[in-house]
Each structure stands twice: as C-alpha cells, then as structure tokens.
C-alpha cells in the first residue's frame, strides 16, 4: 500500500510540473492581452480605430486564465475553504474529511470534464464564432475542457494518494488486532 | 415535491454543513446548486446547466478586470512599490507621536490604491514597518495591530478584487462602486491615524517620537516615491470618472501603468514576471471557482424564489429598511468570525442584495457598506486572515494573541466608521453621483 501511495505521490509531482507550465502559459496570454486592451483604448481615442475583436479575444483569454489554473490551485491547497470546524476535529478524523472533500470535488468535476469535451467539440464542429467578429469560440471551450479535466484528474490522484496512504497506515494496526 | 422556499432553506442548511466539513466553497455551492436544480428542473437540464454555466460565467468580458487588478497588485507587490510608499510616509510623519504607525496606515492606504489585496499589504508592511517600529521601541501590540488593520484598507480603496466580485454577483456598476469607495476608504485611513495620534499622545510609551532629524529637502524629495500611486490613480480612476474608458478597460490600463512604473524602476526580472503571472493566474482561478459555484447556487436560489419570499416576509415586518440593513450588517460581523472575505460575499450577497435592493436602498451605498463590513472580517478572530499572514511574516516577534489585542482599537474605529457611513449616506453616494454618465 505504501508503495502504491508513493506512486501516486510521483504522479502528483509530475502533475505539479504540468500545472506550472500551464499556469505560466496562461499568464503569458493575459500579459499580452493587457497590451492589446491598452492599444485598443489608445487606438479608439487617438486614431478612432479600435482593435477589432478585443472583446471576443478577451473572453477566450479569460477561459485560459481561469479554468486551467484550478488544478494548480488545488494541488497547492489554495481553494477557499472554511476550516474552523475541521481544525478542531481529532487528528485521526482529518484525513477522512480530506478524502470526503476530494470525492465530492471529483463527483462534481467528472461530469463537467466529461461533457466539457462534447461542449468544446460541438463548438469546433459547428465553427461557432463571436457575436460581433468572426473569431472562433472553440479555443475558450477547449481551455474549459482542459481545465476541468486537469482539475478532475488532480482530485482523483489526490484522493487515491490519501486513500492508499491511509490504508498503508492502517495495516500494522489491523495486524496487531488480528 | 417540497415547497420551493423550503427547498431553498434546506439548500442553505446543507451548504453550511458542507462548508463546516471543510469542502471547497466553490464546490459546495456548485454541488448544492446542481442537486437543487435537479430536484426542480430534472437531472438532464440541471446537468446541462452545470456544464455550461461555468464557461458562460467566466468567458464574459466584464470578468477580465479581475485578473488585471490581481496582476496589477502582484506587480506592485513584487516590484517593491510598498517600500517606497512607506519610506515617503515615514519621512513626513515619523517625527509625530506614533508617527511610524501613522506612516504605516498612510502607506497602506496609498498601496491600496494600486493593489486590491489585503494580504499583500499585510505581508509588505509586516516585513517593513514592524522591524522599523521595534527599532523605535513601539509597543508590539500597536505595531502589529496597525499593520494588520491597515492592510484591510485595500479592500475599500479601489481597485479592489472584492468590488469586482460584488459587481459580478449583483450587476451593480463596477465603476460607480469603485468611485464610491474612494472617500470611505481614505476616511477610514484618516480615522485610524487620528486614533493612533491621540492614543500615543495619551500614552507616549506606545509609540515614542523618533529622534531622527529629517530635513525639508529630504521630505520634498521623498514625494517622488509617491509618483507610481499618483500615476495609477490619475490614469485609472480618472479614466473611469471622466468616462475615457470603462472600468473593464481600466483594469488593463492600470495593470499596464504599474508594469511601466515597475519597469522604469528596473525591478522587473524574468523570474519576477513569471512569479507574478503564475500568482495572478492562481488567484484568478481560485476566485473563479468560487464565482462559478456562486452562480450555480444563485440559479437554484432564483428557482426557489427564496429571495422574493424573504423580501415579502421582511416587508411585512414593521422594521424600516435601514433597520433591516443594520441587522444584516450585524450578521456580517458574526459571519466574519467564521469565514473569510470572498466566502462571505459569495454566500450572502445573492440572498441579501435582492432583499436590500427590493427595500429601495441605494445599490451603491449598500455595496460600500457590505464591502466595509467584510473588510473588517479580515481582522476579526478566529479567522482574520490578515493576522495569520502577518504572523507568518514576522515570526515569533509578536504572538497571534498580541496581534488580535492590537487590532481591537482599530476594530472599534472601523465600527464607528461604518456607523458614520450608515448615518450619512452622502459620504458614499456623492462622488459617484458626479461621475460621467
């Protein structure tokens, strides 16, 4: 059991690297978009010529900035929680509460990731475009699919790591009792 | 089937149970919203809503202001702008009774004008101001209390992530909320400083006067360190106030100006930029999940008609609208002891905003009062996040208990400020009423 738990720890480390790359890449999108908005405002006031499609591109950038980061935030345990009760529970209960948190998260994110694929594919197949300019919308929906999938995987791997760590801890106790 | 209103109340009860079990707030709200909608609309429609809502909530151009404000604050934090502000403020105020504590408040208020993060402010001034105040034999409780409390000014002084969150949840004009926050935000800082001055006058041991002589030339030269804040405020808030650009664009313009300022100071490195961008994406994702959950939960609440039922119930009571507002503010003080700021906003606003709006209270005034009260929550025990951030920064120099004790006078001032804002709505609503329409 301990060996399996260490395998999941290794997977988590690999995921952390992927998450970091994804987060930085999405940050770079945002950084360039900042220049685009400033150019749009300047163009509008100075030359009466705004950059077409800024709004549509902004919506895609937002999908890249929010969704793919979910897994990285979970891995760093930074998603907002209220721990006032959990912190007062006996220490042996806490890992089980943590697993409950991970299971509920997985239960919510798995269907989102599953249906997120067809959500993105539909947008790609139907060549969905923005309301004002012909900018395809599927990249944002792909970002949503990638983000929700990474998030669901992160929940799953963390849950399995916790589960096997718990089981590994329990084994000596069970042997002693038997 | 259950009565819809009862189902809504049950949804709230289950949500609080899930929160108490330590579930992520965004997930808890989303799960309850999904189950509630499934009961009311059927499983397949609810599932479709669960999949599409997150995308359409997030991929909304109005949302772009949030990551831009976060980037701006991170850039200012990583670029060391807070240090300059503290240096300038201490040159002007350092010789007064409790001068360094007042300088901390003044610098934190100015820092709040370029960053919306209370935690960044607490971390910056914790590292900087506390050692300086200790060097001048300031009372530990005063020095810790002033840093933790002044850090919260960033919530009220625009730009503020909490203002964006409130605006997204309620559709109240972000530009007006931001402009409305200017006077109450700086007024809170001024009230802190007056309180510090008189406390130290009465008990000089709390903050001995500095013996270091600062010439007028040095003081005047230090004004240049305020340039970044002035440039950002003029560019961003001036642009919103005059209607040159929308609040949504203001986020990008403000971020760009801070980037240029930090670039001009030559404090930008590749690693600093990567850290700033990564932190920005993480913080936006974190708040994004909470907003998505709140929106799913909000749809469920709408289906249950609970906000309307609550409005009808409260309207039937013989309590004036301001009385209802005061009761709600008291509820926030209690909630502030168990929840942090974004959590409180997303859980309560979908319920309280329709009620207060329905009672005919001014939306902007209500927004500022709620933002002020949740600002106080950042320092109330036992959750007070600023306190723990400060403790993390200063280590064993000050105990958590001392920080909370040091905060008490600031908490009292915050309540007085809030009372003033409730009693005189003009303080809040005058400036936005003069804005470009």
Oligomer: heterodimer
Total count of strands of chain B? 0
- Shape of chain A from CA axes? elongated
Mean pLDDT, all residues of chain B: 89
Give the helix/strand layout.
The complex is a heterodimer of chains A (178) and B (437).
Chain A: H1 2-46, H2 54-66, H3 69-75, H4 94-125, H5 138-177
Helix pairs in contact in A: 1-2, 1-3, 1-5, 2-5, 3-5, 4-5
Chain B: H1 4-20, H2 25-41, H3 43-58, H4 65-78, H5 81-93, H6 99-112, H7 118-135, H8 140-151, H9 153-156, H10 161-170, H11 174-202, H12 216-222, H13 227-242, H14 247-264, H15 270-304, H16 306-316, H17 321-336, H18 341-358, H19 363-377, H20 385-394, H21 400-423, H22 426-433
Helix pairs in contact in B: 1-2, 1-15, 2-3, 2-15, 3-15, 4-14, 4-15, 5-6, 6-7, 6-8, 6-11, 7-8, 7-20, 8-21, 10-18, 11-19, 11-21, 11-22, 13-14, 15-18, 16-18, 17-18, 17-19, 18-19, 19-21
Can you tell me about this structure?
The complex is a heterodimer of chains A (178) and B (437). By secondary structure, chain A is mainly alpha-helical. Chain A has one domain. Chain A is 77% helix and 0% strand. Chain A contains five helices and no strands. In chain A, helix 1 (2-46) crosses helix 3, helix 1 runs antiparallel to helix 5 and helix 4 (94-125) packs antiparallel against helix 5. The radius of gyration of chain A is 22 Å and the shape is elongated. Chain A starts with a helix and ends with a helix. Chain B is an all-alpha fold. Chain B has helices at residues 4-20, 25-41, 43-58, 65-78, 81-93, 99-112, 118-135, 140-151, 153-156, 161-170, 174-202, 216-222, 227-242, 247-264, 270-304, 306-316, 321-336, 341-358, 363-377, 385-394, 400-423, 426-433. In chain B, helix 3 (43-58) packs antiparallel against helix 15 and helix 17 packs parallel to helix 19. Chains A and B meet through helix 1, helix 2, helix 3, helix 4 and helix 5 of A and helix 1, helix 2, helix 3, helix 4 and helix 14 of B.
